[in-house]
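Lecture notes, continued. The same structure-token format from the folding unit now serves as the input rather than the output. Read the line below as a description of shape only.
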């Protein structure tokens, strides 16, 4: 179910409920007391040619009842009015006080708790003449709710206006009602849609205090009302960012900016450029984002731990042989350590910069976005197959030779490859740092990516710079040739895993053609190896043999690509496919909910699934507790999943969330243990 259909579903339910209830209660509703008692009041006497302000005042019968703003939020129903006025009189747009937020089961509602008044400007024509009192009336329909039930209500409110100022008796409450209405800004703001967010620039003085601000968007089907909002100051401009939801593309945005304490301002915004950067002053990101030094420490530790994470294992063979070779000379070891570090850091910064640029252009991407592209996966398959052939001794390539002294260029290339292949998954400490990188200014974000690369390269760098560590390595010798051939096994398994991944991404036909192209490249490399052994010029032969296979793949792969649908039927937990609408429905069911986000290219994800999720003990515990399981497959690019990951402060997968009935999501560690899920399922409720 899409976000727009979810929104329309709520609207349809509330509207149908209102119509059925009003039809059933016709003839008796007016005789019954409403839970929100409405009355009509005038601010002054009738003056021809001038505007008259009327107030519809709502008084709840008890504190548990509340009413709704014109845009009720994720659920509810706005007020509808039908006026009975003298000829020529015109009723304007109702003016509302600053609403309040009410979150129930993950749904955000815009409500009024306690008494409140809606003001309506009435235009009296200049030629109007009154011979006596002027009767007016309005038929209203509204929704009155508690946290548990909602009741559609209606009423006819009437008032008798006077044209003689001396005969008018003012209502002492009117000044307070008028003061509660959010005043309009005298300048128009600007808005834009960028990176899955509604960004609104509101011109307000930098000196204006903001105490727990909240932007109430009146324009419907644009914003995710329940999502965190971020507020940044850029001089006399306040920039608000809210995730998009609903699919509407309006040419104007209207709403109320709550300043806190019941105060607010009414704004309008037109399409235009919205400033970037600025000081982060409020919102969930402002309160939860750690200081920069802690983020840097997390990125460093996360990169360091990537060296032992399962998703890094495919390139450990490269690093192991390089480290062994580094003991040949101190100068060579230092050069290679620095070159390798430069390659890793450059690759991490480059990947981060491309990701930030794509997000700034409106693309919904996250960390390891490159592995969501079929062409990149095929390239990695060819690369893994070539490295396997080199390790197995089928051919020699100077930049990948590990049996003689290496060169800084070789270490630099190895570092580039290590970072490119080693970053599909986020490990411990990385999640907060990478999530914050999506929110920080570009320069600070790139520093975080560079620090991540430094952590990944740190073991190799230390061995290159510290002689005592190098002396702990085995001495170079003929054993390295044997070790290299042994390392061909894990690299070959990596290539086979990439073949499986191509099938998961593009279908069996796509994988078959990728395998044919890979086989052609391997054959070409074998011929190169034979020619190298005979001392002949070898690489021209590679081009002649591999070119037909590569050209075949260039045309056959796009034609055979068929996007695959996520299949959850093989899981023991029988999970639902993730969508924000499905998650909201599951949370509203009153049952525990477990959501996990995974990808076929994320080895950490697959290890966690085998260790903690796809287990009989987990299934039994979930069945007994009635836990609703839900999975988000991020193998291929998915804008809705990317947006949700951003809202959770996660830049990539894995991500695990546990929702207790009626509670907010608990983010579980990225390395799951066998008992984490069963213990939560067995909690007393």
């Amino acid at each position: 179910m899409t976000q727009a259909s979810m929104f329309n579903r709520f609207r349809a339910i509330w509207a149908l409920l209102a119509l059925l209830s009003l039809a059933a209660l016709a003839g008796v509703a007016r005789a019954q007391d409403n839970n929100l008692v409405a009355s009509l009041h005038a601010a002054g006497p009738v003056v021809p040619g001038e505007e008259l302000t009327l107030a519809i005042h709502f008084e709840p019968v008890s504190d548990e009842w509340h009413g709704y703003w014109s845009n009720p939020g994720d659920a509810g129903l706005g007020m509808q009015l039908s006026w009975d006025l003298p000829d020529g009189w015109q009723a304007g747009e109702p003016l509302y006080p600053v609403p309040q937020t009410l979150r129930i089961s993950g749904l955000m509602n815009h409500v009024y708790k306690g008494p409140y008044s809606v003001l309506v400007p009435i235009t009296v024509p200049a030629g109007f003449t009154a011979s006596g009192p002027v009767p007016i009336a309005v038929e209203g329909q509204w929704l009155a709710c508690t946290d548990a039930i909602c009741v559609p209500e209606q009423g006819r409110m009437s008032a008798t206006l006077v044209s003689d100022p001396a005969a008018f008796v003012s209502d002492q409450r009117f000044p307070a009602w008028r003061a509660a209405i959010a005043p309009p800004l005298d300048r128009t703001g600007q808005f834009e849609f960028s990176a899955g967010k509604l960004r609104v620039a509101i011109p307000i003085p930098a000196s204006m205090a903001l105490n727990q601000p909240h932007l109430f968007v009146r324009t419907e089907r644009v914003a995710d009302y329940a999502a965190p909002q971020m507020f940044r100051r850029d001089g006399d401009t306040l920039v608000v960012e809210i995730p998009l939801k609903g699919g509407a593309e309006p040419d104007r945005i209207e709403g109320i900016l709550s300043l806190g304490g019941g105060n607010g301002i009414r704004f309008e915004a037109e399409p235009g450029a919205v400033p970037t950067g600025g000081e982060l002053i409020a919102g969930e990101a402002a309160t939860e984002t750690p200081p920069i030094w802690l983020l840097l420490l997390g990125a460093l530790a996360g990169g360091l731990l990537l060296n032992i994470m399962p998703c890094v294992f495919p390139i450990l063979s490269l690093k192991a042989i390089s480290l062994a070779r580094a003991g040949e000379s101190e100068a060579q070891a230092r050069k290679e350590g620095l070159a390798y570090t430069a390659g890793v850091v450059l690759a991490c910064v480059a990947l981060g910069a491309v990701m930030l640029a794509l997000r700034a252009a409106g693309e919904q991407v996250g960390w390891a976005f490159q592995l969501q592209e079929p062409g990149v996966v095929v390239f990695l398959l060819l690369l893994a197959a070539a490295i396997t052939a080199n390790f197995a001794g089928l051919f020699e390539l100077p930049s990948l030779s590990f049996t003689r002294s290496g060169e800084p260029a070789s270490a630099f290339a190895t570092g580039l490859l290590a970072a490119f292949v080693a970053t599909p998954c986020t490990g411990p400490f990385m999640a907060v740092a990478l999530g914050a990188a999506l929110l920080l200014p570009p320069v600070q974000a790139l520093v975080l990516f560079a620090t991540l690369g430094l952590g990944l390269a740190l073991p190799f760098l230390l061995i290159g710079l510290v002689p005592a560590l190098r002396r702990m390595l085995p001495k170079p010798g003929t054993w390295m040739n044997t070790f290299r051939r042994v390392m061909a096994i894990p690299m070959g398994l990596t290539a086979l895993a990439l073949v499986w991944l191509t099938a998961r991404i593009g279908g069996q036909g796509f994988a078959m053609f990728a395998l044919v192209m890979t086989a052609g490249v391997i054959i070409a490399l074998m011929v190169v190896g034979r020619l190298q052994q005979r001392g002949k010029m070898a690489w021209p032969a590679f081009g002649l043999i591999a070119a037909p296979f590569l050209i075949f793949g260039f045309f056959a792969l796009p034609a055979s690509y068929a996007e695959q649908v996520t299949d959850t039927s093989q899981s023991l937990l029988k999970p639902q496919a993730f969508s924000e609408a499905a998650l909201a429905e599951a949370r509203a069911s009153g049952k525990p909910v477990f959501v996990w986000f995974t990808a076929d290219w994320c080895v950490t994800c697959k290890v966690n699934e085998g260790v903690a999720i796809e287990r009989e003990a987990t299934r039994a515990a979930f069945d007994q507790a009635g836990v609703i399981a839900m999975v988000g497959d991020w193998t291929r690019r998915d804008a809705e999943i990317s947006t949700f990951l951003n809202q959770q402060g996660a830049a990539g997968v894995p991500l695990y969330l546990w929702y207790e009935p009626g509670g907010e999501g608990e983010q579980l560690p990225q390395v799951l243990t066998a008992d984490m899920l069963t213990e939560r399922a067995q909690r007393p409720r």
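Point for the exam: Residues 1-32, 400-405 have pLDDT under 50 and may be disordered.
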